[in-house]
Amino acid sequence: MATRVRPSSKRCAVIGGSGFLGRHLVEKLLDRGYAVSVFDIRQGYELPGVSFHLGDLCDKQALLSALKDVSLVFHCASPAPASDDRGLFEKVNIQGTRTVIEACIESGVQVKLVLTSSASVVFEGKDIKNGSETLPYAMKPIDYYTETKIQQEKLVLKACDKEKGFLTVAIRPHGIFGPRDPQLVPILVDTARRGKMKFIIGDGTNLVDFTFVENVVHGHILAAERLRPDSPICGKAYHITNDEPVRFWDFMSEVLVGLGYPAPRYHLPYILVYGLALLLWLLAMILRPLVSFKPTFTPMRVALAGTHHYYSCDRAKEDMGYKPVVTLKEGITRTVQSYPHLRKEA
Ligand SMILES: NC(=O)C1=CN([C@@H]2O[C@H](COP(=O)(O)OP(=O)(O)OC[C@H]3O[C@@H](n4cnc5c(N)ncnc54)[C@H](O)[C@@H]3O)[C@@H](O)[C@H]2O)C=CC1
Ligand SMILES: CC(C)CCC[C@@H](C)[C@H]1CC[C@H]2C3=C(CC[C@]12C)[C@@]1(C)CCC(=O)C[C@@H]1CC3
Q: Locate the 3-beta hydroxysteroid dehydrogenase/isomerase domain: which residues (predicted)?
Protein backbone atom coordinates (compact mmCIF):
# COMPACT_ATOMS: atom_id res chain seq x y z
CA MET A 1 0.00 0.00 0.00
CA ALA A 2 1.32 3.50 -0.84
CA THR A 3 2.50 5.58 2.16
CA ARG A 4 0.38 8.69 2.74
CA VAL A 5 2.40 11.87 3.09
CA ARG A 6 1.03 14.78 5.17
CA PRO A 7 0.87 17.52 2.53
CA SER A 8 2.44 20.95 2.89
CA SER A 9 -0.16 23.41 4.23
CA LYS A 10 1.03 26.15 1.85
CA ARG A 11 0.45 24.16 -1.37
CA CYS A 12 -3.01 24.36 -2.80
CA ALA A 13 -4.81 23.46 -6.02
CA VAL A 14 -7.28 25.56 -7.98
CA ILE A 15 -9.54 23.48 -10.24
CA GLY A 16 -10.74 25.88 -12.94
CA GLY A 17 -7.76 28.13 -12.18
CA SER A 18 -7.43 29.30 -15.80
CA GLY A 19 -10.86 30.97 -15.66
CA PHE A 20 -11.92 34.47 -14.65
CA LEU A 21 -12.44 33.90 -10.91
CA GLY A 22 -9.82 31.13 -10.80
CA ARG A 23 -7.01 33.34 -12.07
CA HIS A 24 -7.84 36.17 -9.62
CA LEU A 25 -7.85 33.58 -6.83
CA VAL A 26 -4.48 32.17 -7.97
CA GLU A 27 -2.95 35.67 -7.99
CA LYS A 28 -4.13 36.39 -4.43
CA LEU A 29 -2.97 32.97 -3.18
CA LEU A 30 0.51 33.64 -4.60
CA ASP A 31 0.55 37.04 -2.82
CA ARG A 32 -0.22 35.20 0.41
CA GLY A 33 2.70 32.83 0.00
CA TYR A 34 0.93 29.73 -1.31
CA ALA A 35 2.41 27.53 -4.03
CA VAL A 36 -0.40 26.83 -6.50
CA SER A 37 -1.25 23.93 -8.82
CA VAL A 38 -3.85 24.86 -11.43
CA PHE A 39 -5.99 22.07 -12.88
CA ASP A 40 -7.98 23.05 -15.96
CA ILE A 41 -8.85 21.88 -19.47
CA ARG A 42 -6.92 24.87 -20.80
CA GLN A 43 -3.94 26.99 -19.78
CA GLY A 44 -4.85 30.65 -19.99
CA TYR A 45 -1.61 32.28 -18.75
CA GLU A 46 1.77 31.68 -17.12
CA LEU A 47 2.87 32.87 -13.66
CA PRO A 48 5.93 32.09 -11.51
CA GLY A 49 4.92 29.83 -8.60
CA VAL A 50 2.08 28.20 -10.56
CA SER A 51 2.26 24.70 -12.04
CA PHE A 52 -0.37 23.85 -14.64
CA HIS A 53 -1.97 20.42 -14.94
CA LEU A 54 -4.10 20.14 -18.03
CA GLY A 55 -7.00 17.70 -17.82
CA ASP A 56 -10.71 17.16 -17.39
CA LEU A 57 -11.96 17.06 -13.80
CA CYS A 58 -13.96 13.94 -14.69
CA ASP A 59 -10.63 12.10 -15.02
CA LYS A 60 -9.68 10.91 -11.53
CA GLN A 61 -6.13 9.80 -12.40
CA ALA A 62 -5.34 13.21 -13.91
CA LEU A 63 -6.78 14.92 -10.82
CA LEU A 64 -4.83 12.69 -8.42
CA SER A 65 -1.53 13.69 -9.97
CA ALA A 66 -2.46 17.41 -9.68
CA LEU A 67 -3.53 16.98 -6.04
CA LYS A 68 -0.29 15.35 -4.94
CA ASP A 69 1.04 17.05 -1.74
CA VAL A 70 -1.95 19.39 -1.66
CA SER A 71 -3.98 20.01 1.51
CA LEU A 72 -6.28 22.74 0.22
CA VAL A 73 -8.40 22.49 -2.94
CA PHE A 74 -10.55 25.20 -4.52
CA HIS A 75 -13.11 23.96 -7.07
CA CYS A 76 -14.25 26.81 -9.31
CA ALA A 77 -14.59 25.02 -12.65
CA SER A 78 -17.87 25.01 -14.54
CA PRO A 79 -19.16 25.11 -18.11
CA ALA A 80 -20.26 28.65 -19.09
CA PRO A 81 -23.74 29.39 -17.64
CA ALA A 82 -24.94 30.57 -21.08
CA SER A 83 -24.50 27.06 -22.54
CA ASP A 84 -27.65 25.00 -23.09
CA ASP A 85 -25.81 21.67 -23.15
CA ARG A 86 -27.58 19.74 -20.41
CA GLY A 87 -25.29 16.69 -20.82
CA LEU A 88 -22.17 18.82 -20.34
CA PHE A 89 -23.54 20.47 -17.16
CA GLU A 90 -24.44 17.05 -15.72
CA LYS A 91 -21.07 15.56 -16.65
CA VAL A 92 -18.92 18.41 -15.32
CA ASN A 93 -20.92 19.82 -12.40
CA ILE A 94 -22.37 16.57 -11.03
CA GLN A 95 -20.22 13.56 -12.11
CA GLY A 96 -17.08 15.73 -12.19
CA THR A 97 -17.68 17.07 -8.69
CA ARG A 98 -18.17 13.49 -7.41
CA THR A 99 -14.78 12.68 -8.95
CA VAL A 100 -13.21 15.76 -7.31
CA ILE A 101 -14.52 14.63 -3.89
CA GLU A 102 -13.22 11.08 -4.38
CA ALA A 103 -9.83 12.36 -5.54
CA CYS A 104 -9.55 14.70 -2.53
CA ILE A 105 -10.36 11.87 -0.11
CA GLU A 106 -7.91 9.50 -1.82
CA SER A 107 -5.13 12.05 -2.12
CA GLY A 108 -4.38 12.98 1.48
CA VAL A 109 -4.89 12.59 5.21
CA GLN A 110 -6.27 16.08 5.81
CA VAL A 111 -7.83 17.84 2.82
CA LYS A 112 -10.00 20.96 2.73
CA LEU A 113 -12.30 21.60 -0.23
CA VAL A 114 -13.74 25.06 -0.96
CA LEU A 115 -16.46 24.97 -3.64
CA THR A 116 -17.54 27.99 -5.67
CA SER A 117 -21.29 27.55 -5.70
CA SER A 118 -23.75 30.33 -6.62
CA ALA A 119 -26.41 32.36 -4.81
CA SER A 120 -28.63 31.41 -7.76
CA VAL A 121 -29.15 27.93 -6.26
CA VAL A 122 -32.20 29.38 -4.46
CA PHE A 123 -33.42 31.56 -7.36
CA GLU A 124 -36.57 30.50 -9.24
CA GLY A 125 -37.20 33.72 -11.17
CA LYS A 126 -39.18 35.30 -8.31
CA ASP A 127 -38.15 38.18 -6.03
CA ILE A 128 -35.63 37.44 -3.25
CA LYS A 129 -34.97 40.31 -0.83
CA ASN A 130 -32.05 39.98 1.59
CA GLY A 131 -32.27 36.17 1.26
CA SER A 132 -30.35 34.15 3.84
CA GLU A 133 -28.73 30.72 3.47
CA THR A 134 -31.78 29.17 5.18
CA LEU A 135 -33.82 29.63 1.97
CA PRO A 136 -34.58 26.23 0.38
CA TYR A 137 -32.90 25.22 -2.89
CA ALA A 138 -34.95 26.18 -5.97
CA MET A 139 -37.67 23.54 -6.55
CA LYS A 140 -37.93 24.59 -10.19
CA PRO A 141 -34.43 25.74 -11.18
CA ILE A 142 -34.55 28.23 -14.01
CA ASP A 143 -31.93 26.50 -16.23
CA TYR A 144 -29.57 23.48 -16.41
CA TYR A 145 -26.72 25.53 -14.99
CA THR A 146 -28.68 26.27 -11.79
CA GLU A 147 -30.09 22.74 -11.60
CA THR A 148 -26.61 21.21 -11.64
CA LYS A 149 -25.08 23.86 -9.33
CA ILE A 150 -27.69 22.78 -6.72
CA GLN A 151 -26.70 19.09 -7.03
CA GLN A 152 -23.03 20.05 -6.93
CA GLU A 153 -23.39 22.08 -3.72
CA LYS A 154 -25.39 19.30 -2.02
CA LEU A 155 -22.71 16.73 -2.90
CA VAL A 156 -19.86 18.86 -1.53
CA LEU A 157 -21.58 19.84 1.72
CA LYS A 158 -22.75 16.28 2.39
CA ALA A 159 -19.22 14.94 1.90
CA CYS A 160 -17.85 16.99 4.84
CA ASP A 161 -16.50 14.41 7.29
CA LYS A 162 -14.45 15.54 10.30
CA GLU A 163 -13.60 11.93 11.22
CA LYS A 164 -12.03 11.30 7.82
CA GLY A 165 -10.28 14.69 7.95
CA PHE A 166 -12.16 15.89 4.86
CA LEU A 167 -13.58 19.39 5.45
CA THR A 168 -15.80 21.21 2.97
CA VAL A 169 -17.47 24.59 2.59
CA ALA A 170 -19.41 26.29 -0.26
CA ILE A 171 -19.14 29.95 -1.23
CA ARG A 172 -22.17 31.42 -3.00
CA PRO A 173 -21.24 34.60 -4.91
CA HIS A 174 -23.65 36.54 -7.09
CA GLY A 175 -23.03 38.46 -10.33
CA ILE A 176 -19.23 38.45 -10.29
CA PHE A 177 -17.65 41.32 -12.23
CA GLY A 178 -14.17 42.78 -12.64
CA PRO A 179 -11.18 42.91 -14.99
CA ARG A 180 -10.98 39.99 -17.47
CA ASP A 181 -14.60 38.87 -16.87
CA PRO A 182 -15.58 37.04 -20.07
CA GLN A 183 -19.35 37.38 -19.55
CA LEU A 184 -21.04 40.35 -17.97
CA VAL A 185 -19.27 43.36 -19.57
CA PRO A 186 -18.53 41.68 -22.96
CA ILE A 187 -22.15 40.49 -23.34
CA LEU A 188 -23.46 43.89 -22.27
CA VAL A 189 -21.23 45.75 -24.75
CA ASP A 190 -22.03 43.31 -27.56
CA THR A 191 -25.76 43.83 -26.92
CA ALA A 192 -25.26 47.62 -26.91
CA ARG A 193 -23.24 47.51 -30.15
CA ARG A 194 -26.07 45.61 -31.81
CA GLY A 195 -28.45 48.40 -30.72
CA LYS A 196 -30.37 46.14 -28.30
CA MET A 197 -29.59 47.95 -25.02
CA LYS A 198 -32.25 50.65 -25.37
CA PHE A 199 -34.86 49.09 -23.11
CA ILE A 200 -35.31 48.67 -19.36
CA ILE A 201 -37.16 45.48 -18.47
CA GLY A 202 -39.86 46.36 -15.90
CA ASP A 203 -39.93 49.61 -13.91
CA GLY A 204 -36.15 49.57 -13.33
CA THR A 205 -36.32 49.67 -9.51
CA ASN A 206 -35.37 46.02 -8.86
CA LEU A 207 -32.37 45.56 -6.54
CA VAL A 208 -29.66 43.01 -7.30
CA ASP A 209 -26.23 42.00 -5.92
CA PHE A 210 -23.17 42.43 -8.11
CA THR A 211 -19.91 41.31 -6.54
CA PHE A 212 -16.46 42.62 -7.41
CA VAL A 213 -14.18 39.65 -8.09
CA GLU A 214 -11.67 40.58 -5.35
CA ASN A 215 -14.42 40.34 -2.74
CA VAL A 216 -15.31 36.86 -4.00
CA VAL A 217 -11.62 35.87 -3.75
CA HIS A 218 -11.46 37.35 -0.22
CA GLY A 219 -14.48 35.23 0.81
CA HIS A 220 -12.85 32.06 -0.58
CA ILE A 221 -9.56 32.65 1.24
CA LEU A 222 -11.26 33.48 4.55
CA ALA A 223 -13.27 30.27 4.26
CA ALA A 224 -10.18 28.19 3.42
CA GLU A 225 -8.16 29.58 6.31
CA ARG A 226 -10.99 29.19 8.83
CA LEU A 227 -11.95 25.68 7.75
CA ARG A 228 -10.86 23.55 10.71
CA PRO A 229 -12.57 20.59 12.44
CA ASP A 230 -13.73 22.82 15.33
CA SER A 231 -14.98 25.68 13.14
CA PRO A 232 -18.71 26.41 12.61
CA ILE A 233 -18.23 26.73 8.85
CA CYS A 234 -17.70 23.00 8.12
CA GLY A 235 -20.30 21.65 5.69
CA LYS A 236 -22.07 25.02 5.32
CA ALA A 237 -22.85 27.44 2.47
CA TYR A 238 -22.05 31.18 2.62
CA HIS A 239 -23.34 34.11 0.55
CA ILE A 240 -20.50 36.38 -0.52
CA THR A 241 -21.57 39.64 -2.19
CA ASN A 242 -20.56 43.31 -2.18
CA ASP A 243 -23.25 43.76 0.48
CA GLU A 244 -24.47 46.82 -1.45
CA PRO A 245 -27.62 45.84 -3.41
CA VAL A 246 -28.01 48.14 -6.41
CA ARG A 247 -30.72 48.71 -9.00
CA PHE A 248 -29.92 46.25 -11.82
CA TRP A 249 -30.45 48.95 -14.47
CA ASP A 250 -28.39 51.58 -12.59
CA PHE A 251 -25.46 49.14 -12.48
CA MET A 252 -25.81 48.32 -16.21
CA SER A 253 -26.15 52.02 -17.08
CA GLU A 254 -23.04 52.96 -15.07
CA VAL A 255 -20.93 50.36 -16.90
CA LEU A 256 -22.38 51.31 -20.31
CA VAL A 257 -21.95 55.07 -19.81
CA GLY A 258 -18.44 54.48 -18.39
CA LEU A 259 -17.55 52.78 -21.69
CA GLY A 260 -19.16 55.52 -23.80
CA TYR A 261 -22.51 53.85 -24.67
CA PRO A 262 -25.90 55.41 -23.92
CA ALA A 263 -27.88 54.10 -20.92
CA PRO A 264 -31.14 52.23 -21.66
CA ARG A 265 -34.17 54.58 -21.44
CA TYR A 266 -37.44 53.02 -22.62
CA HIS A 267 -39.44 50.68 -20.39
CA LEU A 268 -40.95 47.35 -21.48
CA PRO A 269 -43.30 45.26 -19.27
CA TYR A 270 -41.43 42.38 -17.59
CA ILE A 271 -44.08 39.77 -18.37
CA LEU A 272 -44.06 40.63 -22.08
CA VAL A 273 -40.26 40.34 -22.40
CA TYR A 274 -40.18 37.16 -20.30
CA GLY A 275 -42.89 35.57 -22.50
CA LEU A 276 -41.02 36.54 -25.69
CA ALA A 277 -37.73 35.17 -24.29
CA LEU A 278 -39.42 31.88 -23.42
CA LEU A 279 -40.93 31.64 -26.91
CA LEU A 280 -37.56 32.34 -28.57
CA TRP A 281 -35.82 29.80 -26.35
CA LEU A 282 -38.42 27.14 -27.30
CA LEU A 283 -38.04 28.02 -30.99
CA ALA A 284 -34.25 27.74 -30.74
CA MET A 285 -34.67 24.27 -29.17
CA ILE A 286 -37.14 23.05 -31.80
CA LEU A 287 -35.15 24.40 -34.75
CA ARG A 288 -31.77 23.30 -33.40
CA PRO A 289 -31.37 20.37 -35.86
CA LEU A 290 -31.94 22.78 -38.80
CA VAL A 291 -30.54 26.18 -37.75
CA SER A 292 -28.50 27.26 -34.77
CA PHE A 293 -29.20 30.64 -33.13
CA LYS A 294 -28.57 31.89 -29.60
CA PRO A 295 -31.07 34.49 -28.34
CA THR A 296 -29.45 37.36 -26.35
CA PHE A 297 -32.45 37.70 -24.04
CA THR A 298 -32.75 34.22 -22.52
CA PRO A 299 -35.47 33.57 -19.88
CA MET A 300 -32.69 33.40 -17.22
CA ARG A 301 -31.23 36.78 -18.21
CA VAL A 302 -34.67 38.41 -18.35
CA ALA A 303 -35.51 37.00 -14.89
CA LEU A 304 -32.19 38.27 -13.55
CA ALA A 305 -32.74 41.69 -15.13
CA GLY A 306 -36.35 42.17 -14.00
CA THR A 307 -36.64 40.84 -10.43
CA HIS A 308 -35.24 41.71 -7.01
CA HIS A 309 -32.58 39.23 -5.96
CA TYR A 310 -30.16 40.20 -3.27
CA TYR A 311 -28.75 38.18 -0.43
CA SER A 312 -27.69 38.65 3.19
CA CYS A 313 -24.00 38.10 4.03
CA ASP A 314 -24.67 38.05 7.80
CA ARG A 315 -23.65 34.40 8.17
CA ALA A 316 -20.26 35.05 6.48
CA LYS A 317 -19.76 38.16 8.63
CA GLU A 318 -20.49 36.27 11.86
CA ASP A 319 -18.67 33.00 11.16
CA MET A 320 -15.68 34.20 9.14
CA GLY A 321 -15.43 37.94 9.80
CA TYR A 322 -16.23 38.67 6.13
CA LYS A 323 -16.35 42.30 5.00
CA PRO A 324 -16.06 43.40 1.36
CA VAL A 325 -12.61 44.81 0.60
CA VAL A 326 -13.59 46.84 -2.52
CA THR A 327 -16.71 49.03 -2.74
CA LEU A 328 -19.13 48.77 -5.66
CA LYS A 329 -18.16 52.24 -6.90
CA GLU A 330 -14.44 51.43 -6.87
CA GLY A 331 -15.13 48.02 -8.45
CA ILE A 332 -17.07 49.59 -11.33
CA THR A 333 -14.34 52.20 -11.93
CA ARG A 334 -11.61 49.56 -12.02
CA THR A 335 -13.69 47.30 -14.27
CA VAL A 336 -14.51 50.04 -16.79
CA GLN A 337 -10.82 51.10 -16.93
CA SER A 338 -9.77 47.51 -17.62
CA TYR A 339 -11.73 47.27 -20.89
CA PRO A 340 -10.21 49.99 -23.15
CA HIS A 341 -10.83 47.76 -26.20
CA LEU A 342 -14.59 47.64 -25.48
CA ARG A 343 -15.00 51.45 -25.40
CA LYS A 344 -17.32 52.99 -27.98
CA GLU A 345 -15.23 54.43 -30.76
CA ALA A 346 -15.77 58.17 -31.18
N1 LIG B 1 -19.40 34.61 -13.10
C2 LIG B 1 -20.38 34.73 -12.21
O3 LIG B 1 -21.11 35.73 -12.18
C4 LIG B 1 -20.62 33.64 -11.22
C5 LIG B 1 -19.88 32.46 -11.26
N6 LIG B 1 -20.09 31.49 -10.29
C7 LIG B 1 -19.28 30.28 -10.29
O8 LIG B 1 -17.90 30.66 -10.21
C9 LIG B 1 -17.08 29.68 -10.83
C10 LIG B 1 -16.08 30.35 -11.75
O11 LIG B 1 -16.79 31.03 -12.77
P12 LIG B 1 -16.06 31.97 -13.82
O13 LIG B 1 -14.66 32.21 -13.39
O14 LIG B 1 -16.97 33.11 -14.06
O15 LIG B 1 -16.07 31.03 -15.11
P16 LIG B 1 -14.96 30.78 -16.23
O17 LIG B 1 -15.67 30.15 -17.38
O18 LIG B 1 -14.15 31.99 -16.49
O19 LIG B 1 -14.02 29.68 -15.53
C20 LIG B 1 -14.34 28.33 -15.44
C21 LIG B 1 -13.08 27.49 -15.70
O22 LIG B 1 -13.43 26.12 -15.56
C23 LIG B 1 -12.72 25.38 -16.56
N24 LIG B 1 -13.40 24.12 -16.83
C25 LIG B 1 -14.61 23.95 -17.40
N26 LIG B 1 -14.88 22.64 -17.53
C27 LIG B 1 -13.82 21.97 -16.99
C28 LIG B 1 -13.50 20.59 -16.84
N29 LIG B 1 -14.34 19.64 -17.28
N30 LIG B 1 -12.35 20.25 -16.26
C31 LIG B 1 -11.48 21.22 -15.84
N32 LIG B 1 -11.71 22.54 -15.97
C33 LIG B 1 -12.87 22.91 -16.55
C34 LIG B 1 -12.74 26.32 -17.77
O35 LIG B 1 -11.74 25.96 -18.72
C36 LIG B 1 -12.52 27.67 -17.11
O37 LIG B 1 -11.14 28.00 -17.08
C38 LIG B 1 -18.03 28.69 -11.49
O39 LIG B 1 -18.17 27.57 -10.67
C40 LIG B 1 -19.36 29.43 -11.55
O41 LIG B 1 -20.44 28.55 -11.49
C42 LIG B 1 -20.99 31.69 -9.29
C43 LIG B 1 -21.73 32.82 -9.22
C44 LIG B 1 -21.62 33.87 -10.17
C1 LIG C 1 -28.67 41.43 -22.13
C2 LIG C 1 -28.90 42.10 -20.80
C3 LIG C 1 -30.33 42.06 -20.37
C4 LIG C 1 -28.07 41.55 -19.68
C5 LIG C 1 -26.56 41.57 -19.91
C6 LIG C 1 -25.79 41.23 -18.66
C7 LIG C 1 -25.85 39.76 -18.32
C8 LIG C 1 -24.96 39.00 -19.29
C9 LIG C 1 -25.41 39.53 -16.84
C10 LIG C 1 -26.30 40.27 -15.86
C11 LIG C 1 -26.42 39.42 -14.60
C12 LIG C 1 -25.37 38.36 -14.80
C13 LIG C 1 -25.37 37.11 -13.99
C14 LIG C 1 -24.80 35.94 -14.48
C15 LIG C 1 -24.25 35.89 -15.89
C16 LIG C 1 -24.18 37.24 -16.61
C17 LIG C 1 -25.41 38.08 -16.31
C18 LIG C 1 -26.68 37.35 -16.77
C19 LIG C 1 -24.86 34.63 -13.73
C20 LIG C 1 -25.99 33.81 -14.35
C21 LIG C 1 -23.54 33.85 -13.84
C22 LIG C 1 -23.58 32.55 -13.09
C23 LIG C 1 -24.23 32.58 -11.76
O24 LIG C 1 -23.98 31.74 -10.94
C25 LIG C 1 -25.25 33.60 -11.47
C26 LIG C 1 -25.04 34.90 -12.22
C27 LIG C 1 -26.16 35.88 -11.94
C28 LIG C 1 -25.93 37.19 -12.61
A: 13-268
267 vs 126: CA distance, rounded Å: 20
Question: pLDDT (tens digit, 9 = 90+) per residue, 119-157?
Answer: 999 999 999 999 999 999 999 998 999 999 999 999 999
Instruction: Delimit the domains of the chain by residue range.
Output: 9-177+209-244+311-326
Which CATH number does 9-177+209-244+311-326 carry? Answer: 3.40.50.720
Query: pTM for the complete prediction?
Result: 0.95
CA-based nearest residue to 205, from 277, 305, 272: 305
Q: Which atom of ligand 2 is nearest to the CA of 301?
A: 18
Pocket-forming residues, ligand 1, beta carbon under 6 Å? 16, 18-22, 40-42, 56-57, 76-80, 92, 96, 116, 118, 149, 173-176, 182-183
pLDDT digits (tens, 9 = 90+) for 26-60: 999 999 999 999 999 999 899 999 999 999 999 99
